[in-house]
UniProtKB/TrEMBL annotation:
The record marks R10, T66, Q148 as: Important for substrate specificity. Signal peptide: none annotated. InterPro entries: ITPase-like_fam (IPR029001), Maf-like (IPR003697). One of its GO terms (molecular function) is nucleoside triphosphate diphosphatase activity. Keywords: Cytoplasm, Hydrolase, Nucleotide metabolism. Nucleoside triphosphate pyrophosphatase that hydrolyzes dTTP and UTP. May have a dual role in cell division arrest and in preventing the incorporation of modified nucleotides into cellular nucleic acids. This is dTTP/UTP pyrophosphatase. It comes from Selenomonas sputigena (strain ATCC 35185 / DSM 20758 / CCUG 44933 / VPI D19B-28). It is an enzyme of class 3 (hydrolase). SUPFAM superfamilies: ITPase-like.
Amino acid sequence: MFILASASPRRRDLLAQIGASFRVEVSEAEEVREAKTAEELVRVNALAKARAVAAHAALPVLGADTVVALAGRIFGKPADEREAHEMLAALSGRAHDVLTGVAWCRGGQEFSTVEKTRVFFAALSKEMIARYVATGEPLGKAGAYAVQGRAAVFVERIEGSFSNVVGLPLHAAAHLAEKAGVDLYDASRA
C-alpha cells in the first residue's frame, strides 16, 4: 500500500489499471513554474509533491509532474481556452516531448527519475483546434490535450511510453518503486 500524492484522475486510473494498492492524498505543495530545463522542472515538482505528503504519512508516497516541451518552451496546463488554442497551434504538425518527473519518498529516502516520450502531431486546422477546445477536454491537461481522449486523432506516432503521455510512466514508476523497496501491490488482494 502506498499514497499517490496527486489530484489527477488519469494517474489514479493508470495505477488502478495495473492493480496497484494505493490511496490518494492530494499534495498541497506549491509547484515551481520555471526551471533551467523541463527535466529539472518536473523532477523538482514531483519531489515537492511527494515530500509534502510524506512529511505526515507513514506509507511510501508517489509524486509526479508532467509537462509538454517544444523547442525550449514548456507547456503546462492551459489557463483558459485562448491559451489552449495557442498551445495546440504551436504543437500542430510538429514533434514535441512529454516529460514526467516521478518521485518516491519512503522512510526518509527519496528516489526520482524523469521519463521523456516523443509525440508527433499531425497538422491541425484552426477549425479542428476550435472544435477540440470547445469540448473542454484540453483544460487541465499538460500541453492542452488528452492522448487517451479525443486528441488521439491528432497523434501520428509516439516514441516511448504511452502511459507517460497520459500522465504517469508506469514502467518507470514501477522500476523506481522496486529501487525504493516499495511494493505496488497488496498481496492479500491477489
